[in-house]
Amino acid sequence: MDTKKILVVSSAFYPENSPRSFRTTELVKELARQGHSVTLYTLKKPEFHTAIEKEFGIVIKDLGTRKMPIINVGSGAKPIVLMKRIINRALLQLISYPDIELMFMVKKALKKEKGTYDLLISIAVPHSIHWGTAWARTKSHPLAKKWVADCGDPFMGAIHDSFKKVFYFKYLEKWFCKKADYIAVPKLAMKETYYPEFRNKVIEIPQGFKFDEVVLNNFTKNDVPTFGFAGTFVPTTRNPTPLLEYLATVEAPFKFIIYTETQDLVLPFIPILKEKLELRRYVPRMELLKELSSMDFLVNISYDPVHQAPSKLIDYYLTRRPILSSASSIFETAIVAEFLKGDYKNAFVFDNIEQYKIENVAKSFLYLVKE
User: Are 129 and 10 in contact (CB under 8 A)?
Assistant: First the structure.
C-alpha cells in the first residue's frame, strides 16, 4: 500500500460536540485506519486524546493554550448584559476576537515542523486556522506537497451571516486562498460564494461518518406521535416559530423533543404546548443518535438546500427514521399533518448516500495527492 504522511490542523476535535469536530475526528481516524501516517495539531486534551493516539496510531500535537479570555455575557442587569453583547460583537467584527489568537498559535506550531508531508489539511471554522497555516507555509517551508483548506462557508462570502464582515478581512481570505492548492466545501454550489479568481480551486468533499459504528434502539411505534429536532436555531434563517405556531393549533396528542443550546425561540411555546414540547440540552453524538432512533420521525429545517449540506441530515439518515424537511422555516402544514398521522410519503429522500461514508470521504482527500 502507498502510505502517505498527512498533517491535519484543526481547533475542533473530540470530545467537542460540533460538525467541525466530527469532521476532524472522523477524518483522522479513517485516514489512520487506511494505514496512513497521521499527525494532528489541535487543542490537545490528554485525558481524552491519549487513548485515541494509542488506538489509531495517530500523533496528536498541542497547538497550545488559548489565553484570550471569552467575555461571558451571562445574566444580570440588562444594561450590563447589553454592553457585554455590544463589546463581544464589536471585537468579533473588528478583529475576529477571540479566534484570531488561533492564527498565531497555528503559525508558531507549524513553524516547528521538520520535513515535508504528502498532504496538509486545515479545517475551519474558525478561518483563523487557515490564516495561520498560510502564514506558516512558505516556499522555503512548504510543510506538504498539497494543501487542502477545508471549509464550511467562506469567511467573507458567507451568505447567511447577520453582520457583514469588515472589508479588510478580504485580504486574509484572498491570502490563504491563493496559497492553498484546494478549497474543499461540502457542496460544489458553494463555489459561487468564493472570490472568482479562486473558484477553480474549489472542490466538493462532503461530511463523512463511519456508518457501521452507530448503535440504534429497536424501534417500536410510540403511543403518541413522537418526533425530534437536534441543532441550532437562527432567527433569520432556521426559525422553529412557524412550525411551533402550527403545532399549537393541533389538538391531537404528540410529543416534540428538541435538543438545542439556542432555546430563546422555543421558550415562549413551553406554556402553550406544555407536555407536548420538551427541551433538552445537547448530548454526545452517539447517544443522540440512539435516542433519535426511538422517535417516529425527525425534523430538519434546511435554510439553504442549494449551498448547504448539513451534517444533521446524515445523522438523521443513520437513525433510519423518516425525515420531515423544509427548505425554509415555513413547513407545508398539510405535510406536517400527514407526518403526525404516520403518513411519510413526503419524507426527505437522500441522493447518493454512499458519498457520506467516511471511507469514501478519506479517499477523496487522498486522491488529491495523486494529481
Answer: yes
Strand partners, 202: 183
Contact (CB, 8 A) for 165 and 93:
yes
Q: Which residues contact 343 (CB under 8 A, 6 or more apart)?
A: none
The DSSP bridge pattern shows strands 37-42 and 59-62 to be parallel
What's the pLDDT tens digit per position in 342-370?
999 999 998 888 999 999 999 999 999 97
* Contacts (Cβ under 8 Å, ≥6 apart) of 211: 318, 357, 358
Q: What is the pLDDT of residues 149-163, one digit of tens each?
A: 999 788 998 766 667
d(CA 205, CA 366): 11
Instruction: Give yes or no for a contact between 228 and 256, defined as CB atoms under 8 angstroms apart.
Output: yes
Specify whether the CB–CB gap between 314 and 207 falls below 8 A. yes
With CA atoms as reference, report the closest residue to 132 among 270, 242, 10, 22: 10
Model confidence over 198-254: pLDDT tens digits?
999 999 999 999 998 889 999 999 999 999 999 988 887 789 999 999 999 999 999
The one-character DSSP state at 42 is E
